[in-house]
Amino acid sequence: MRDTRESRLLLVLLVAIAFALITVDIRGGERSPLAPARQAAAAAFGPVESGIATVVDPVGNAVGAVRDSGERHTRISVLERENAALKAKLGSSDRNRNRAAELDKMLKTAGTGQYGIKGAQVIAIGAAQGFSWTVTIDAGSQDGIARDMTVLNGDGLVGRVTTVGRTTATVLLANDPDFTVGTRMEKTNEIGFATGQGGDSLRVQLLNGKAEVKKGDRLVTFGSSADKPFVPGVPVGRVVKVDPSNGDLTRSLQVRPFVGFSQLDIVGVVVQPPREDPRDTVLPQKPAKPRPTPTVTVTATPTASASPRS
């Protein structure tokens, strides 16, 4: 169509009619007089729109994926952080379970020996006041801790309190070379003195040079006057080597302590001694020796062969 004055007037008129029809349709809603025509147009052009949507949707999805990639990356980062936090929480729960088990074991040891204890946690390890094997615990004078109190855990003798502050205290460990404790052998009651050697070893001098001792025998604390610095009956260790007597007045033993001094965490300070010496009752039960499984041997007995017929 040529651009003439009549064509421009016709275009303006068509636009005005279109706006009028849209206004009537909107105001009429579902009762609009143009509803039948709109439905007919939808039926006619619906398939065409579906075909166009089929072509356009992948492109739209791709655009949406690009648009949402930043949001998806953020969600992944959040999930990764939550996962890391959960793993840390699980690790913490494992540690708490281990500490709860240590505390339970220590309470059972204290209960068996009738020791009144004050629980504490090891918060530092290292030299203090000139001692080479010491730890610092988070309990002090305000908790009833005093100098020369016995320190133990669920395995046995840890050491003794040497220095006390208001909220902390220093413990000299039993494996320190300056540490000495009176000991008593299980069952035989042979008395001796254990001295630390550093690491995981104690040296015990028995007062009886002819004492019968063998590898695997166990020792407990003998106890001190007025139960300070040591209460009786606390497990000390197990004999790993017996030196030849050679006719000496004393007998030397190498003893491995029950306590792992490099793994200390929860300890108990004995603030009230037992009414009676618990003797060997605090020592753990020895594992039962496995009984040999009886072996049954089946021997086949040859049968007599039938005699040949004549």
Provide key terms for this protein.
310 residues; alpha+beta; six-stranded antiparallel beta barrel
What would you say this structure looks like, in words?
The protein is elongated. The chain starts with a helix and ends in a 38-residue tail after the last strand. A hairpin with a 4-residue loop joins strand 3 and strand 4 (157-164). The model is unreliable at 62-67 (pLDDT under 50). With 310 residues, it is an alpha+beta fold. The chain is 33% helix and 24% strand. It has helices at residues 5-28, 35-113; strands spanning 116-125, 134-137, 150-152, 157-164, 169-173, 180-185, 191-196, 202-206, 218-221, 235-242, 251-257, 266-272. A 6-stranded antiparallel β-barrel has the order 1-2-5-4-3-12. The chain has a 6-stranded antiparallel β-barrel with strand order 6-7-8-11-10-9. The protein has 2 helices and 12 strands.
Distance between the termini: 135 Å
Q: Please tell me how large the radius of gyration is.
A: 44 Å
- Name the structural class: alpha+beta
Task: Indicate the percent of residues in helices.
Answer: 25-40%
Number of helices: 2
Strand content: 15-25%
Q: Major sheet: order of its strands?
A: 1-2-5-4-3-12
Query: Biggest sheet, open or closed, and with what strands and sense?
Result: 6 strands, antiparallel, barrel
Low-confidence stretches: 62-67
Number of E strands = 12
Mean pLDDT: 79
Query: Could you give the order of the helices and strands?
Result: HHEEEEEEEEEEEE
Gross morphology is elongated
